[in-house]
Amino acid sequence: MVPTASTLLSAWEAGAAEAPLDRAPSLLRSLGEIPPDQNLGAMTVGQCEARLFELRRALFGDLLEAVATCPTCGADVELNLSLAELGPPLAEHASAAITLRQSNHAVAFRVPCNDDLRRLGAAEPEQAIGELVERCLIEARTADGHPVAAAQLPLELQQAILEAMAAADPGAQTLLEVTCPCGAAWVDELDIRSVVWTDLTDWVGRTLTEVHQLARAYGWAEAEILGMGAWRRRWYLEALGW
Ligand SMILES: [Zn+2]
């Protein structure tokens, strides 16, 4: 169901009070996309992003126009992306524990959730891998049964854990293969949280400008103007010569 303009504005206001990484996810709760008692922090990153792809399509359509900058020649490459094609499937059971036997170790771990992402926000990329494994590790033992700390796990095993997390929770990362007319090819990451939040912020700016113009011209109240729908607002603005 498409939310009303007034509901969207309130959802944006509530989100703006959150930390940047939490703004788009908070919309899922404000707009009723997840049950009110569902803990957003405990939702896996991929489950959250899969829902944000759906929310962006419902609010602003499937087409995403984006610009990537070529690392070789510096040109801007315009991208026309279909969110339905890029969006990950919703992995309902991604929060189940995963076990792995490799490099003479047996490990059990879970996939990262929103809380993990928030805690890692400030970490350097090299530290982030170790920290993520440490946060998500449930148990690690050597082949002869001795417990091992996350920091002691071989690097190749840490890498394997990350790969298993990505496979179990598709959508935690959406990669785009981009090519430039100059021949360069590279991989960019699509940040759906930032897409959803930026699009909604732009919409809020446009909508409040309309409210301002109509209130000033006709003396109508904000609630009346928001309640009349986008098509009618535009009609009155055009009548005013906007
Ligand atoms: Zn180029």
Provide a quick synopsis of the model.
The chain is α+β, with helices and mostly antiparallel strands and 242 residues long.
Kindly describe this structure.
The chain has 242 residues and is an alpha+beta fold. The chain has two domains: 5-90 and 175-239, no CATH class; 98-168, no CATH class. It has helices spanning 5-16, 20-30, 45-60, 83-86, 114-120, 125-136, 155-168, 192-218, 222-227, 230-239; strands at residues 63-69, 76-82, 98-102, 105-109, 137-142, 174-179, 185-190. Helix 3 packs parallel to helix 8 (192-218). It starts with a helix and ends with a helix. The relative contact order is 0.15. The model has no long low-confidence stretch (mean pLDDT 93). The structure holds zinc ion (ZN).
Beginning-to-end CA distance, first to last residue: 30 Å
Radius of gyration computed on alpha carbons: 22 Å
Following the backbone from N to C, one meets helices and strands in this order, namely HHHEEHEEHHEHEEHHH
Determine the strand fraction and express it as a percent band: 15-25%
The helix-and-strand class reads: alpha+beta
Largest sheet: 3 strands, antiparallel
Total number of helical segments? 10
Ligand species: zinc ion
Write down how many β-strands occur, each being a DSSP E stretch of 2 or more residues.
7
Low-confidence stretches: none
Q: What is the approximate shape?
A: elongated
Biggest sheet: strands side by side, in what order?
3-4-5
Integer average pLDDT: 93
Helix content: 40-55%
What's the structural domain tally?
Answer: 2
